UniProtKB/TrEMBL annotation:
It comes from the Bacteria. Gene3D superfamilies: Cytochrome P450. The lineage of its organism: Bacteria, Bacillati, Actinomycetota, Actinomycetes, Mycobacteriales. It holds the Pfam family p450. The keyword Signal does not apply. This is Putative cytochrome P450. Heme binds at residue 425. It comes from Gordonia rhizosphera NBRC 16068. Keywords: FAD, Flavoprotein, FMN, Heme, Iron, Metal-binding, Monooxygenase, NADP, Oxidoreductase, Transport. Its cofactor is FAD; heme; FMN. GO terms for molecular function: heme binding; iron ion binding; monooxygenase activity; oxidoreductase activity, acting on paired donors, with incorporation or reduction of molecular oxygen. In the N-terminal section; belongs to the cytochrome P450 family. Belongs to the cytochrome P450 family.
Length: 489
């Protein structure tokens, strides 16, 4: 806080409201206070879950105010579809994402729309994330999944699903991104790099929450200083790795691609510093999101025996009688039911719970609400994906909602777990390929039993993951995968 801020406060002049929507107000949680606003309605450890909890009763568009920061939330599929119109709206960076810029800078996820490195990185990297490009990552994904299975077979006993799925997706990503093996399945300890990375991220997240509070910037700078060594360690490891590889022309991983490719027209390349930020971005954007998706799918399958049986039957049909068989690249696209089971889990629990949109020019949202380019709205996917105007019995888990005929019946943009438009998820094919592959192989190899008394509890980290969900996994035998169990589908 500057001296000028201090004087203004003494004079009793309030700071302007950020994201003020020209002074319009929307329904909000009861009990708002002067000065702190709706602070008491929000659990600081799980702000998204708080908003999901009280939001359902507040209608298609609502707000909260925390000190001088206003948030406007959208809960209906109709307003979401409008905000997804790329000709009128684009990605906005709310404070929680701005705070991550300390960690990931102008990397793809945290870049502002007009930052030159976004366009450059997007064009250089898009080819590395197409469906055909997954063929080159497929052997790594298989190998990592195989190591996870071996680890389970050695350890025995029930498995903490979120923890082990996070180990898996972290390994897959570090191996495909920069050919590094963190040894997650050989030791019980977390690798120091992963620990430091998570500490650096947590600091950013805390800072994001703090930025809205008076004096928050000051505390933020304190946190940054305390965090500086973790960030410096993580940056140092990656910078060394990048320097070692520069000059070689190994294109077998994302780092190789980033070092090797130049823009076909301008010849421009990514700087080593920007490459480091992209790697940090992939590690963060790509591991917890996919691990949460896997964990929620396993949770819902374990709770819905009919769905589990159909998914298992599909895995058996395609993979054959050897329970240890792993899918080929071509087979992954054939697990249509398993893919629907994953889509449906991401409907009920989108692991990236929200994204923000703002208008390109002055406009009116929903025919009523004025928006200027500095205003933004948060699309709350957990509410949009349960909008009763679009989804029947939205709380019921039913993968067949994603049969092509049913998808065609729904309005556009009613299902958005990977965001939208130019700034949509670049890693979507990567996540889907890995998740379907792992689910198919797992269902084929093991019988799963969940504790019937477990109630789903959701942990809000940067993304959403089930907390304390355990599965007992028992190896299946050849004789159990009989041709008889392979009939039907
Ligand atoms: Mn991913 C952007 C969800 C897996 C890398 N991702 C987004 C956005 C959503 C999202 C939503 C848009 C955010 C916004 O508009 O502000 N991502 C997911 C989900 C999964 C996922 C639900 C898994 C399931 N993401 C991955 C993986 C990677 C990845 C895997 C990398 C390997 N995601 C990104 C990057 C962006 C992004 C990079 C930013 C893209 C851009 O803005 O250009």
């Amino acid at each position: 806080m500057t001296a000028a801020d201090g004087r203004r406060k003494v004079a009793g002049v309030r700071r302007p409201l950020r994201n003020d929507w020209s002074g319009q107000s929307f329904p909000h949680h009861e009990g708002r206070r002067r000065f702190i606003g709706d602070l008491r309605a929000v659990d600081p450890r799980s702000p998204i879950l708080s908003v999901l909890g009280w939001g359902a009763a507040l209608g298609p568009i609502f707000e909260s105010q925390i000190f001088r920061q206003k948030f406007v939330f959208v809960a209906s599929a109709e307003l979401t579809a409008e905000l997804c119109d790329e000709s009128r709206f684009c990605k906005a960076l709310p404070p929680a994402i701005v705070a991550l810029r300390h960690y990931a800078g102008d990397g793809l996820f945290t870049a502002y729309n007009d930052e030159p490195n976004w366009q450059l990185a997007h064009e250089l990297l898009a080819p590395a994330f197409t469906k055909p490009a997954m063929r080159s990552y497929h052997p790594t994904m298989l190998g990592t999944a195989g190591e996870l299975f071996d680890y389970w077979d050695r350890r025995g006993g029930p498995v903490d699903v979120s923890r082990d799925m996070t180990k898996l997706t972290m390994e897959t990503l570090s191996r495909t991104a920069f050919s590094h093996d963190f040894g997650s399945f050989r030791t019980a300890q977390t690798h120091p790099f992963v620990g430091a990375m998570i500490r650096a991220l947590q600091t950013s997240r805390r800072k994001g929450a703090l930025l809205t509070a008076p004096g928050g910037r000051l505390v933020g700078r304190f946190l940054d200083r305390r965090n500086a060594s973790a960030q410096a360690y993580v940056d140092g490891v990656l910078d060394e790795l990048i320097a070692e590889r520069a000059g070689t022309d190994d294109r077998s991983d994302l780092l190789g691609i980033m070092l090797g490719v130049a823009h076909p027209e301008t010849g421009q390349r990514l700087s080593p510093e920007n490459i480091r930020r992209q790697i940090l971005t992939f590690l963060v954007a790509g591991h917890e999101t996919t691990s949460g998706a896997l964990s929620f799918t396993l949770y819902y399958l374990s709770r819905n025996p009919e769905c589990l049986a159909r998914a298992r039957r599909e895995a058996d049909e395609i993979l054959g009688t050897d329970p240890a068989a792993m899918p080929t690249f071509e087979q992954v696209a054939k697990f249509r039911y398993i893919r629907r089971a994953l889509d449906e889990a991401l409907r009920i629990w989108p692991t990236v719970p929200a994204f923000a949109r703002g208008p390109r020019a002055d406009t009116t949202l929903g025919g009523r609400y004025r928006m200027r380019p500095q205003d933004w709205a948060v699309i709350m996917l957990g509410l949009v994906h349960r909008d009763p105007a679009v989804w029947d019995n939205p709380e019921v888990y039913d993968p067949d909602r994603f049969l092509p005929a049913n998808v065609r019946k729904r309005p556009a943009h009613s299902y958005k777990p990977f965001g939208t438009g130019a700034r949509a998820c670049i890693g979507r094919q990567f996540a889907l390929h890995e998740a379907v592959l792992v689910l198919a192989a797992l269902l084929h190899r093991y019988d799963l039993t969940a504790d019937p008394d477990y109630d789903l509890s959701v942990d809000e980290r940067l993304t959403m993951v089930p907390r304390g969900f355990e599965l007992a996994l028992t190896r299946r035998h050849h004789s159990e995968v009989t041709p008889a169990s392979r009939v039907g589908g």
